[in-house]
Amino acid sequence: MKKYLILFVFALVTTVSAQAQVGIGLKVGANYSNITGDDAPDVYERIIGGHAGLTANFPISSDNFFSVQPELLFSMKGAKNDATDADLRLYYIDVPVLARFNAAPLFFEFGPQLSINVGDNVDFDGGSGPDYRRTGLGYAAGLGIATPLGVSLGLRYNGDISKLNDEGDAKVYNDVFMLSLGYTFTTR
């Protein structure tokens, strides 16, 4: 079944890219993240991190008004415990697949996101923290400005649907604002 799905996606990407200008790009920026939710302690404060990665943009409409933009980003998320000065830094590979509406020079984007936890740097003053989920589902929504030269500046919000960890019934989630600078190379 996986082989057929991969073959279908490859065929779809090939067909779309053969008929339109596919954009491949790079993205880098800053994250402003926190831990939120019904059960999140009030002692958490936002921290600044970063993100970087690759983007692809596949136009769906002939006028490039609507496109699909998958991304592969390395992203730092987490929070600071104001009471203990302990930092919670979680590192993810984020894979958002965004519907993008281009109203030159503005763009609007939203869609689902898969996050894969690739590590953490938890500072609990000698103690160990909880085990965090290896994968999580979330969503992303944002807006930005894109120039005809391929340079873009975007602001995005990422929220989790999946809980941050599986221990207990605590409803705690990542909450991230992203400011990104991107450059897109157009093919064809």
Automatic annotation (TrEMBL):
Pfam families in the record: OMP_b-brl
Signal peptide (from-to): 1-20
InterPro entries, sorted: Beta-barrel_OMP (IPR027385), OMP/PagP_B-barrel (IPR011250)
Keywords, alphabetical: Signal
Protein origin, superkingdom: Bacteria
Sequence ranges assigned to domain Outer membrane protein beta-barrel in this UniProt record: 8-185
Presence of keyword Ubl conjugation: no
Entry protein name: Porin family protein
Organism taxonomic ancestry: Bacteria, Pseudomonadati, Bacteroidota, Cytophagia, Cytophagales
